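Input structure tokens:
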């Protein structure tokens, strides 16, 4: 494939590459090493918003996740930022088989293996190291790695990834940056995350190189504290329509 660009992708194309060669970010056959699990791709295709979640209890995780899925957002990213995160992934995955439960804030190989064992169907990292990239290829769980610069995006591409998390999106220039990247990095597609809300999301989703966005606005802290699950479901319903607006 050296010197040959892949066909242009659109929003219905697969959005998770399971990837990299365990040796390095930089080797000529990196792109040929990537493979894509069809069942996961089918679950993620066409989802405009991935809720980024942080839970304080298992009950909270179950109630919020039920509301989101009922509202039309079946792909969930449960971040490893609390002591209950792994148990939350396990319980939500078991209770909501119709959902696609992923793990966020995966920083180490041990965490990658732990979320896989807990039942996560994909993992999200704020960045990408050679160690994590090497482990991800054989871990049995697809990785969505984060990038913030063109150099990081190029390194991820060499490692076999064509779908990346742009993070933190707003702090790194947001829509204008991703628009500018589309020409020189036309092989890549992104899930921008960080600082995105209902008002900003449509501008991202209108870009040809954006597949979906990640955000926490669909789960307001005050709604969780009040147990206002109908409000969370309503926000999910609004977010699920964004790609069609």
């Amino acid at each position: 494939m050296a010197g040959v660009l892949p066909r242009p992708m659109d929003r219905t194309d697969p959005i998770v590459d399971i990837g990299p060669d365990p040796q390095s970010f930089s080797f000529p056959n990196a792109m040929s090493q990537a493979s894509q699990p069809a069942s996961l791709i089918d679950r993620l295709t066409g989802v405009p918003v991935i809720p980024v979640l942080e839970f304080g209890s298992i009950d909270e995780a179950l109630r919020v996740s039920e509301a989101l899925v009922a509202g039309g957002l079946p792909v969930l990213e449960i971040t490893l930022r609390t002591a209950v995160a792994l148990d939350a992934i396990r319980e939500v995955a078991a209770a909501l088989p119709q959902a696609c439960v992923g793990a966020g804030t995966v920083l180490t190989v041990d965490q990658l293996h732990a979320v896989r064992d807990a039942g996560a169907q994909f993992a999200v990292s704020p960045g990408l190291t050679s160690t994590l990239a090497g482990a991800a290829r054989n871990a049995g769980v697809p990785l969505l790695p984060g990038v913030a610069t063109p150099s990081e995006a190029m390194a991820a591409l060499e490692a076999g990834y064509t779908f990346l998390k742009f993070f933190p999106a707003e702090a790194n220039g947001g829509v204008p940056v991703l628009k500018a990247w589309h020409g020189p990095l036309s092989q890549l597609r992104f899930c921008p995350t960080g600082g995105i809300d209902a008002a900003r999301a449509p501008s991202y989703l209108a870009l040809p190189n954006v597949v979906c966005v990640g955000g926490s606005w669909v789960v307001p802290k005050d709604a969780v504290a009040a147990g206002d699950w109908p409000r969370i479901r309503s926000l999910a319903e609004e977010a699920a329509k964004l790609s069609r607006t």
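The mean pLDDT is 86. The chain is about 40% helix and 15% strand.
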